[in-house]
Amino acid sequence: MSPMDAAPRPAPPRINPLQRIWLRELGMERLWLRTPPAVPVAKAGSVASGATPGQTPAAASPGGPSTAPHSPIVAPTPVEARLDAPTAAPVADAAPVAAPAVARTAPAEPASGRASAIPASILNRTGPPPRPAPKVEVQEEAPPPIPVAEAVKDANLEQLAAQVVACAACGLCKGRRHAVVGQGAQPTRWLVVGEAPGEQEDRQGQPFVGRSGQLLDAMLAAVGMSRERDVFITNVIKCRPPGNRNPKPEEIAACSPYLMRQIALLKPERILVLGRFAAQTLLGTDATIGNLRGRVHHLKTDEGVQIPVIVSYHPAYLLRSPSEKARAWQDLKLAAREL
């Protein structure tokens, strides 16, 4: 063994379970309980502090007690004695020498300075440790959506159609199959405006394709009009309401800018409005369809142009009430006379 060996390490300071919990919460449990480094201590038989290198200690000289100055001899520990036993030289006729005890006192505080890092108020606190405050992730606020009227003000017909397909301005977008933009002649003589797509329109993505569409085509043909040549057909609401219910005011408000932009781009000579909700939306009134039909209204565009507006019954209503077809025919003739 080497002439110098480490003294036994002092046991770490005892802490109670509550202090251990505090240390763990602070992340200092391992640091506090780490054993301080051992202090080197001279072994028995090693060179004394006053001896010169190569000098034999008095206890190891064969001639008996040495006359050299007394030097402190450290008594070997049991482990060191066992390790040194095979190689230690026997001492003959040597008077027993009492080895002075080496004072091994624990330092006032650990060498690593852990005691100064933990306040006594924390170590002496009673009760469970406080839970750490949850981390609150700061999320960047999404920019507010651009209003529909602002988004479509400079769009052409193709861009407008793409915006309608991607629209999520109201809850109707969640249940639709297809958004129904509109279909017909461009440029157009008549703009026919319905209320909202039905089941068949939602399936096919085209306006007025069910039984209502067949009746509308027959009505237009009676006054010499065709959707392929003269008429563009659209709706105030571009997505089907669930169960074909009436559109809600917020849905009409969210979707009507698309219709107003279509009117500005198509510049129709006449507008034939079919149904109460479409008439009230376009004319900005709460009047019933019975009070609105039978006369010519006018819609003023942003360019200052006055477009004649004729109000009539929706074809779906005429299918349920065939007796009203005569009044609808009068409305069509009124629209045709205004050309």
UniProtKB/TrEMBL annotation:
Record GO terms (molecular function): 4 iron, 4 sulfur cluster binding; metal ion binding; uracil DNA N-glycosylase activity
Pfam families from the UniProt entry: UDG (PF03167)
EC numbers for this chain: 3.2.2.27
Comp. bias (Low complexity): 48-72
Domain Uracil-DNA glycosylase-like positions: 181-333
InterPro entries found in the cross-reference section: UDG_Type-4/5, Ura-DNA_glyco_family4, Uracil-DNA_glycosylase-like, Uracil-DNA_glycosylase-like_sf
One GO process term, biological-process aspect: DNA repair
Domain of life: Bacteria
Keyword set, alphabetical order: 4Fe-4S, DNA damage, DNA repair, Hydrolase, Iron, Iron-sulfur, Metal-binding
Reaction equations catalysed: Hydrolyzes single-stranded DNA or mismatched double-stranded DNA and polynucleotides, releasing free uracil
Region (Disordered), start-end ranges: 44-74, 105-138
NCBIfam families from the UniProt entry: UDG_fam4
Membership in a protein family: Belongs to the uracil-DNA glycosylase (UDG) superfamily. Type 4 (UDGa) family.
Name used for this protein in its record: Type-4 uracil-DNA glycosylase
Lineage: Bacteria, Pseudomonadati, Pseudomonadota, Betaproteobacteria, Burkholderiales
